[in-house]
Design a protein that fits this description.
alpha+beta; Thiol Ester Dehydrase, Chain A; elongated
Length: 131
């Protein structure tokens, strides 16, 4: 897959469960943070969009767990985004940096809710360069 953005992280102790591996919910946090950082690089602000009546809302998350991360592991979360009808579909993969292994694969679908209604958001489309 071709990626258009990536963000590096280090696993913190408190993100791990009793088995010593990253708790499954944290992979979604890593992906969300990566999406937010990507949106910021495009000059968009979730707060400003909200003030304008535009909210980007996650409507579906599909995570595939491949290899576990452990405390102290350094990893990178990479993404690409495509537009499918009204949905912004983010394809995100997490790779452990020490060995390059794929640890998690995610497909996250979001939509724009404009003044309380599902709709097309030209501001976001133009920033993401998707049509």
């Amino acid at each position: 897959m071709e990626y258009i953005f990536e963000e590096e992280f280090t696993v913190r102790d408190y993100e791990c469960d009793l088995q010593g591996i990253v708790n499954n919910a944290n992979y979604q946090h890593y992906m969300e943070h990566t999406r937010h950082q990507y949106i910021k690089t495009l000059g968009l602000s979730f707060a400003k969009l909200h003030e304008e009546g535009i909210d980007l809302v996650v409507v579906r998350v599909d995570l595939r767990f491949k290899n576990s991360l452990k405390s102290g592991d350094k990893f990178v979360c990479k993404l690409n985004v495509k537009k499918e009808s009204l949905k912004y579909v983010f394809y995100q993969d997490i790779y452990r940096l020490s060995d390059g292994k794929l640890c998690n694969r995610g497909i996250i679908e979001s939509v724009a809710v404009i003044n309380g209604k599902l709709g097309v958001c030209e501001v976001v489309d133009n920033a993401l360069k998707v049509v």
